[in-house]
Amino acid sequence: MRFRQIIFAGCFGRRNPPTLIMDTNKIRNFSIIAHIDHGKSTLADRMLEITKTVEARQMQNQYLDMMDLERERGITIKMQPVRMEYTPNSPRESAYILNLIDTPGHVDFSYEVSRSLAAVEGVVLLVDGTKGIQAQTLAHLYQAQKQKLVIIPAINKIDLPNSRPEEIELELRKILGEGEILKISAKEGTNVVQLLEAIIEKVPSPQAKGGPSLKDRPSGISRALIFDSTYDDYKGVLAFVRVFDGSFKTGNKIKFIAQKKDAEIMEVGYFKPQLISQKDLNQGEIGYIATGLKDPTLVRVGDTILSLNDAEHTRTHAENKNLSASSQHYSAYVLPGYSEPRPVVFASIFPKEGADFNVLREALNKLKLSDAALSFEPDSQEVLGRGYRCGFLGSLHMEIVLERLKREYNLASLIATTPSVVYELILKNGESETIFSAADVPTSDRYTEIREPWVALNILTPTRYLGGVLELVSWRRGVHTDTEYLSTERVQIKYEIPLAEIIVDFHDKLKGVSSGFASLSYEFLELRKGDLARLDILVAGELVTALSRLVPRDQAFEEGQRLVSKLKDLLPRELFKVSLQAAIGGKIVAREDISALKKDVTGYLYGGDITRKMKLREKQKRGKKRMKASGRVNIPSSVFFELLKR
Ligand code: GDP
Ligand code: MG
Questions:
Q1: CA–centroid distance, residue 41 to ligand 2 (Å)
Q2: Chain segment 545-572, per-residue pLDDT in tens
Q3: What is the predicted pLDDT for the residue at 620?
């Protein structure tokens, strides 16, 4: 991560020239929200330039995408806060502080967006002038409206010849009503200054939120909401916060209310976007608090950091004498946090070497600091040993987590089981049991019902691709519920569909049938009874539980055949013949064989020493036999992902 490098290069903790303490009226906190690729990070680039936050020679495209992984893939994964200073063009105006949080647009990272929104008073809603409103445009807009944020709509990419700003303006008006809609080019900077001025004019200055009302609140209370965090080897856990009351300084004693943990502040500062330390962090500001805590599990996103001055401390204690040491009485100060995200995909991760288990635990705990949507708990499986069952917000989220574990924590050889949704079994005795993997489903005489998660799916597509989209969904057990035309060109279709049908390759397929124009969002509905069968895969006669899955019973047979023939293409050949079998309820329904790899072990011996050659061949045979007996076929982890695609 470039971010980390900057920290270690010594910029971290650098003291800036003393900054003037800002009048809260001069602060604006806002996020940029949009569907993926509509230009959020590019717009942030222009704002960084206009406000001279980043020096021209250091500027590069999508500057706020700090992770190498983000730059390689061209997508934002993490929200990124940055503080800018801007003096409006009108005379006699002094500088404003603008705290911007850039957000990801992909549905798998929507938890990053929802957390950003709790730290700001307004949003720029960006819409690509060539693509128009897409599914995440609406999903994020509804979230911002729910939080009662000021919404500043802008149509982007007007420099492109195929952009249709007027048409899109009409679509936006249908949803937002009257009001100014700026037309900008984030790439060329057109009207970006006007947008900054609109933010200053329309977004309110920071306000207090939740807890005791401002009027009744004694002045000795300081409170901040943790919206993100990261780990630093020297300063421990860094909490990224929005200060709602009072101020925080180095040396202050602080309390994490939900975690019931005390700490002392090592340092406070703001984002430029690298960390710049400053004397204090005041009401309305967005910045970081270095806690010195080395245990990453002590700090949780969504928690409130509280600091009381001596008088206030004495007062609360006097009031709550009989509550003694418990943090119970601090709960009155809790700021409204976030609801925990609901993981949709589960997979277990195992280190190849058992000894790496502790490394994996440490890595997951640290990763969770900067990926609050990740959840995990210990798991152990006979063949794979000890590992963690992880919950993800989607398969892209899972892919990114595995990649980050590899890159940032040197865990290159992890084994991940097939991603699966979570099922519920209703047992014969009436009890219910949660099932995270098909391998845990018992024989059918032990349960009466399997329930699977259903979601409300929302697809936005240009009308000309409607046919293809409808066909795609009809293949996947979807039930159509609603169709709504946003304009003659754009239609929104709603479905109820089993989550398992859309978590893996549905998104890619949807892009495929619509030349990239259709988009989706979804929301959990409930668990519903499904007619599902457990499909097992045997490799070289051995059940590979990591490949087991639940499939609709009427598709089980074809699915079994499809899987073994695909496995045949995907698995590398071994020195011995490997059989691949699919089984439903213990009955083999399909079989393929991978022929043995012939390796001439005598190749380097030339001439006529036939006895020597025979000896070597004998040795090879014995080796093969041993391998065959141990039955260990190496299954590369990429195979698990490939197998899921249809
Ligand atoms: P994000 O996913 O919303 O952060 O989008 P990015 O800022 O990463 O931009 C996605 C793509 O659109 C990039 O290739 C940008 O160069 C391009 N882009 C962004 N804004 C504009 C614009 O105003 N005009 C043009 N022509 N391209 C733009
Ligand atoms: Mg971006």
A1: 4
A2: 778 888 898 888 998 999 899 988 888 7
A3: 64
* Neighbouring C-beta atoms of residue 263, cutoff 10 Å: 22
Distance 151 CA to ligand 1 centre (A): 20
pTM of the model: 0.81
CB 382, CB 310: distance < 8 Å: no
Residue 498: phi and psi, rounded to 5, are -65, 135
Ligand 2 midpoint to CA 101 (Å) = 11
DSSP letters for 300-364: -TTPEEEEE-HHHHHHHHHHTGGGTT-GGGGGGGPPP--PPP---EEEEEEESSGGGHHHHHHHH
Residue closest to 281 by CA, chosen among 640, 19, 623? 19
Ligand 1 pocket test: pick from 37, 78, 160 the residue with the most ligand atoms within 8 Å of its Cβ.
Answer: 37
The rounded percent of the chain whose pLDDT value lies above 70 is 85
In angstroms, what is the span from residue 240 Cα to ligand 1's centroid? 27
- Residue 381 near residue 367 (C-beta atoms within 8 A): no
Give me the sign of the Cα torsion angle 242, 244, 250, 256: negative
Predicted pLDDT at 457: 94
Q: Choose the residue to mutate in 31, 35, 40, 42 for probing ligand 1, maximizing ligand atoms within 8 Å of C-beta.
A: 42
pLDDT digits (tens, 9 = 90+) for 299-357: 989 899 998 777 767 766 666 555 444 445 677 788 887 878 889 899 889 887 777 89
**Contact (CB, 8 A) for 218 and 260:** no
